[in-house]
């Protein structure tokens, strides 16, 4: 084939007639392919059926170009590589950090939900669990003053609400308590963890303060999304593995996170260990507060 023929073919492809309706649904620019050359939006039929949208989401999330497999392989076998690649602009071959986080969180909490249903089905009990089993209904607890002023501020009102909800929760049967707590925790803990990721990124940013290597808060946030995605996979695995193996996985995850911190931000070993220790302590406290808040919301909103 001559060069002139190749040129003619290229010109013919470039001048191909617009596809679909001929214009972009977003900006009305003429279409010459599956993507708009003006705004970048893909040419898709807005009236496509629901099953097509679901299939499209699953394909893009889990199998598009094999990116998820490549991403998970790098996530597990090369700690910190995903964040380092993101920082250096090499992003096309990997699943986006936010999409990876969301997919793995769905995997983790779905596994927890299935495990919770199995555990609940094997538990049988109809006797209410009391907050103070040694205290009977109507008995005054020593040291409690029933005539003490309760106050009218938001603090006392919140205290009375929490006390009332806790009392009603304590009157439920063990099966109902487990069901209520499980439903509430699976609803509120994912939200709390999502809110905790920016805090994790802020802690990393503070630990890297005044480092010679250039980085941004966005880099720390991406690192947080990658780390949490790994943790979610480990959580999912612990629901199906024996407890002893699960404990080893948790320990391995802590080491993995330390190695990821070192590679992602190009730290020396000496600069990595103490930062990883402070991060584990400070974020551990943050997670304890988040889970406690989720449990409190579960009780109050019950």
Question: What would you note in describing this structure?
Answer:
- This protein has helices at residues 3-14, 50-63, 67-77, 81-87, 97-121, 154-170, 174-207, 217-238, 243-264, 269-300.
- It is mainly alpha-helical and 302 residues long.
- It has 2 domains: 17-67, no CATH class; 69-133 and 158-300, no CATH class.
- α7 runs antiparallel to α8 (217-238), α7 (174-207) packs antiparallel against α10 and α8 packs antiparallel against α9.
- The longest helix has 34 residues, at 174-207.
- It starts with a helix and ends with a helix.
Question: What structural keywords apply?
Answer:
0% strand, mainly alpha, 302 residues
The topology string of helices and strands comes to HHHHHHHHHH
Mean pLDDT: 78
Helicity, in percent? 55-70%
In DSSP terms, counting alpha (H) and pi (I) runs of 4 or more, how many helices?
10
Which regions are unreliable across 5 or more consecutive residues at pLDDT < 50? 1-20, 123-135, 137-141
Largest sheet: none
**Secondary structural class:** mainly alpha
Strand composition percent: under 5%
Task: Give Rg in angstroms.
Answer: 27 Å
Shape: globular
**Count of discrete structural domains:** 2
Distance between the termini: 75 Å
Number of strands: 0
What is this structure's SSE topology?
Layout: H1 3-14, H2 50-63, H3 67-77, H4 81-87, H5 97-121, H6 154-170, H7 174-207, H8 217-238, H9 243-264, H10 269-300
Structure at a glance:
The protein is an all-alpha fold. The chain has helices spanning 3-14, 50-63, 67-77, 81-87, 97-121, 154-170, 174-207, 217-238, 243-264, 269-300.
């Amino acid at each position: 084939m001559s060069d002139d023929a190749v040129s003619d073919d290229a010109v013919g492809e470039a001048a191909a007639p617009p596809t679909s309706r001929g214009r972009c649904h977003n900006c009305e620019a003429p279409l010459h392919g599956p993507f708009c050359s003006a705004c970048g939006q893909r040419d898709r039929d807005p009236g496509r059926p629901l099953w097509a949208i679901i299939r499209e989401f699953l394909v893009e999330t889990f199998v598009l170009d094999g990116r998820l497999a490549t991403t998970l392989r790098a996530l597990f076998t090369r700690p910190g590589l995903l964040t380092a690649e993101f920082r250096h602009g090499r992003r096309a071959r990997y699943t986006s950090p936010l999409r990876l986080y969301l997919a793995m969180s769905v995997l983790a909490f779905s596994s927890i939900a299935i495990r919770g249903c199995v555990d609940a089905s094997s538990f049988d009990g109809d006797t209410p669990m009391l907050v103070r089993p040694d205290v009977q209904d109507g008995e005054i607890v020593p040291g409690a003053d029933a005539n003490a002023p309760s106050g009218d501020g938001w603090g006392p009102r919140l205290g009375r609400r929490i006390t009332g909800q806790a009392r009603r929760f304590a009157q439920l049967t063990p099966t109902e308590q487990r069901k209520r707590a499980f439903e509430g925790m699976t609803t509120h803990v994912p939200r709390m963890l999502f809110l905790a990721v920016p805090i994790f990124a802020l802690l990393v940013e503070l630990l890297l303060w005044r480092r010679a290597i250039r980085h941004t808060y966005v880099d720390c946030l991406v690192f947080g999304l990658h780390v949490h995605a790994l943790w979610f996979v480990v959580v999912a695995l612990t629901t199906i593995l024996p407890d002893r193996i699960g404990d080893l996985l948790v320990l391995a995850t802590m080491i993995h996170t330390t190695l990821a911190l070192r590679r992602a931000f190009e730290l020396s070993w000496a600069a990595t260990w103490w930062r990883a220790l402070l991060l584990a302590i400070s974020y551990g406290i943050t997670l304890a507060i988040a889970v406690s808040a989720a449990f409190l919301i579960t009780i109050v909103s019950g």
